[in-house]
Write a structure and sequence with these properties.
With 384 residues, this protein is of the alpha/beta class. The longest helix has 18 residues.
């Protein structure tokens, strides 16, 4: 679908008082878009483009224009060509690119501001603002939630891979109390053995066998009853933690959860939490944990966005496109507030901003989302 987008962005996205924008502005706001509109990730690029059109359709302001350019994916040559093209059109503000791997090229264009849906680093970096759901935002929400649940012995679990240093860096900022760090292999065959060690599974199995032997040769009614109860168990004794934060997703997360259930971790006593899963419904059918909690965006707005997108385009969007949808609102608000956008400093807002995904705060040159906690229960996502 090729359609020239020249539709204006309305601030309805962020639900601000329209009186704020009563004054007319003579200037035009041209916003560049850097997205993979060709190649392996073109479906994602097109989904981003459609999300912007959906946002713009809600607004009807003839002074805002979107100028889309194909950035490829991790293609520095194509990215630079597209940025140069936008620069030649005197475009100062750009949505994209989607990958942090491209950020090194963006630093060469200090006269431009780039708003990326990347979630790797929430800090303002030179001329780049990342508005993705950062791990820092998620850990802030989880720390508050676990404290509220009065849990005091937390194990923070994550795979030992290329993202390990990033996870460790974020954990240092959080200053968790009484936590144990547990790194595991992404290989399911190795993982189960590691989880057995974490949960002291072998000893708990031995405890059960020893207790059963105490009653096996006895014939009194009380001993028989006790043995019947023990036969219903898989292990005896608890684990030395009361809560879990599993920093993983997809099949890896499901493997971890399956291993925890296999090692007989009591789901009624242990609080299971993980990171944002974007309301992936497959977790209902493949997840062996009855109550799994995680921080995420505003579910009602997320669902509404998906429904509106499907109604207009006949397909469902990639979940990260709600971030580019919100990016337009952020840019529009900065433009209306400052009359123009000169630099990244125009995005240093004192007040919190309400978007589709939830509430943003901009403190200490950093974007932090205030996330809600949801749990999976009976094939539903329930806000806690």
């Amino acid at each position: 679908m090729k359609k020239k987008i020249t539709i204006l962005l309305s601030y309805i996205i962020f639900f601000f008082n329209t009186n704020l924008f009563a004054n007319e502005h003579n200037q035009i706001l041209k916003i560049g878009l850097l997205a993979p509109l060709s190649g392996e990730y073109k479906e994602l690029g097109n989904s981003i483009l459609y999300s912007l059109q959906l946002a713009l359709d809600e607004i009807n302001d003839e002074k805002v224009f979107i100028v889309p350019k194909d950035s490829g994916f991790n293609d520095d040559k194509k990215l630079i060509e597209s940025i140069e093209d936008l620069k030649s059109q005197d475009i100062k503000i750009v949505i994209g690119p989607i990958s942090k791997n491209n950020f090194k090229e963006l630093k060469k264009y200090n006269e431009m501001v780039f708003i990326s849906p990347s979630n790797i680093d929430p800090k303002f970096t030179n001329n780049i603002i990342s508005i993705g759901i950062s791990l820092e935002s998620q850990l802030i929400a989880l720390k508050k939630f676990i404290k509220k649940q009065k849990k005091r012995k937390t194990v923070i679990m994550f795979p030992n891979n290329d993202y390990t240093p990033l996870i460790e860096e974020n954990l240092k900022k959080m200053d968790f109390e009484n936590v144990k760090i547990f790194k595991y292999s992404s290989n399911p065959e190795v993982l189960t053995g590691e989880i057995e060690i974490l949960t002291n599974y072998s000893q708990r199995k031995k405890n059960l066998e020893l207790r059963k032997k105490m009653f096996e040769d006895k014939e009194d009614a009380q001993s028989i009853k006790q043995l019947e109860k023990l036969e219903q168990l898989y292990t005896l004794g608890g684990v030395n933690f009361d809560s879990l934060i599993i920093i993983d997703f997809g099949n890896n997360l499901k493997s971890v959860l399956t291993s925890l259930v296999y090692t007989d971790v009591n789901q009624n006593e242990i609080l299971f939490t993980t990171i944002n899963q974007w309301f992936d419904e497959s977790i209902f059918y493949e997840n062996t944990i009855k109550n799994l909690y995680y921080p995420s965006v505003d579910y009602k707005e997320f669902k509404k966005y998906n429904e509106n997108y499907f109604k207009k385009f006949g397909i469902y969007p990639n979940e990260i496109t709600i971030l580019t949808y919100d990016a337009l609102g952020l840019i529009y608000y900065a433009w209306k507030t400052n009359d123009k956008i000169n630099s990244i400093n125009d995005f240093m807002f004192k007040n919190k901003i309400k978007g589709k995904i939830g509430t943003f705060s901009f403190k200490d040159r950093k974007v932090i989302q205030e996330l809600d906690i949801y749990k999976t229960d009976k094939n539903k996502f329930i806000k806690f």
